[in-house]
Design brief:
5% of the residues lie in helices and 40% in strands. It has helices spanning 129-132, 175-182, 229-233; strands spanning 2-3, 7-12, 16-21, 33-39, 46-54, 64-70, 75-80, 90-92, 97-104, 112-119, 145-150, 163-164, 168-170, 191-199, 203-204, 208-209, 212-213, 217-218, 222-227, 245-248, 252-255, 261-264, 289-304, 317-318, 321-323, 330-331, 343-344, 353-366.
Length: 367
């Protein structure tokens, strides 16, 4: 949990999380405070990674400070500021509960703070620079093949990514943010990421995927390739599924300016259709498009696109539900499981947008 008027981007889960001061990486405000209470499952201990601690220097960090306390062990860490920084970028505690307290008074400069945490039950190395650094100026030094742990909340931290899931990412990309873009982890949970560093390419194309827009980038010496867990077992996990039949709540019967009839029927919803697509009858509410996959399949994601540049229509957001029999429908709630997940769709009529289902949907019908 977090309380106070000095809290910035915060995503806390029982297994990992990311937190920052208000306005980060801009100058943090005067006279604010934030208290974060981190709790891990019983029997585990917390590992805290200091991504950035840039608080204006003062004697005993009186103007601005970061203080961590371990109530179980009665241990305190800090106070920290620019002239009293943590001695190591990774703090390994012996506690499953840690309180993080940030305070500011009047000051002139400072980006504030960016921290992440994970628990001792996560296997592998808990990397610090790749998932929390505020600038991609210093690329990570990784072996050719490795597994790293990314905490929850990497999607909204500062830093850029270049590339896309199919071709890979420039190795100067913020690593865990790129992993969210690639769809190998859900931002709300984080998780273990398997990747390799391969030879760079001349040009990285931008793409919008999983709520993130990557940048178009030029030649790099190395690139990051993320490997999905299913692809380690089967190379077919990203294959396009065949749709046996399309259905819809309604469709638009259009008469154009020349009096010609055009039907925006459900079958025209297939990706790659030339010309106009499917569209619901104008003015209808709760419209839906239904895909019959013919048999029960494992659905790992969806790609959407507008009708075409000629017909400038597109869907900006949508919900997903699935059924195994076509009668009983289950809304998709993602890895959080509390609310129906609203997927971010298209911003124009020509760019493809990808969203990943973590966990996948097992169903015959998808709406």
């Amino acid at each position: 949990v977090s309380t106070g008027n000095g809290c910035g981007h915060t995503l806390l889960t029982p297994h990992s999380g990311t937190l920052s001061s208000k306005n980060y990486p801009g100058t943090y405000p005067n006279h604010t405070a934030c208290r974060w209470r981190l709790r891990a499952p019983p029997g585990t201990s917390l590992l805290l990674a200091f991504g950035d601690v840039d608080l204006e220097p003062s004697e005993h960090c009186a103007r601005s400070s970061l203080l961590l306390s371990d109530p179980q062990a009665g241990t305190a860490y800090g106070p920290y500021c620019r002239n009293s920084v943590p001695s190591t970028p990774l703090l390994v505690t012996n506690s499953s509960s840690v309180t993080v307290l940030f305070n500011s008074t009047s000051h002139l400069s400072g980006r504030g703070l960016l921290l992440s945490y994970a628990t001792s039950q996560h296997p592998g190395t808990h990397y610090t620079q790749e998932h929390v650094r505020a600038s991609p100026d210093h690329p990570p030094t990784l072996p050719m093949h490795c597994s790293v742990y990314c905490p929850a909340g990497c999607k909204d931290i500062q830093g850029d990514i270049w590339g896309n899931p199919s071709q890979g990412y420039r190795d100067t990309s913020v690593l865990c943010k790129a992993a969210v873009h690639a769809g190998v982890i859900a931002d709300e949970l984080g998780g273990q990421v398997t990747l390799s560093r391969e030879k760079g390419i001349t040009l990285y194309e931008s793409a919008f995927a999983n709520g993130l827009h990557s940048k178009r980038g030029s030649l790099s010496e190395k690139r990051l390739i993320f490997h999905k867990a299913c692809c380690l077992l089967s190379p077919a996990c990203d294959d396009v599924l065949e749709v046996a039949a399309f259905n819809a709540s309604s469709w638009w019967h259009e008469l154009d300016v020349l009096g010609q009839y055009r039907a925006w029927v459900a079958e025209r919803a297939a990706l790659g259709t030339i010309g106009h697509s499917w569209a619901a009858e104008p003015g209808t509410e709760a419209s839906w498009l239904e895909l019959d996959l013919g048999t029960r399949r494992n659905v790992t994601g969806i790609i959407t696109k507008g009708s075409s540049e000629q017909h400038d229509y597109y869907v900006t957001s949508y919900l997903v539900s699935s059924s195994r029999d076509g009668k009983n429908w289950r809304p998709y709630r993602g890895s959080g499981g509390q609310e129906d997940k609203l997927f971010e769709g298209n911003a124009d009529s020509h760019e493809e947008v990808s969203n990943t289902f973590i966990p996948p949907i097992v169903a015959r019908y998808v709406r």
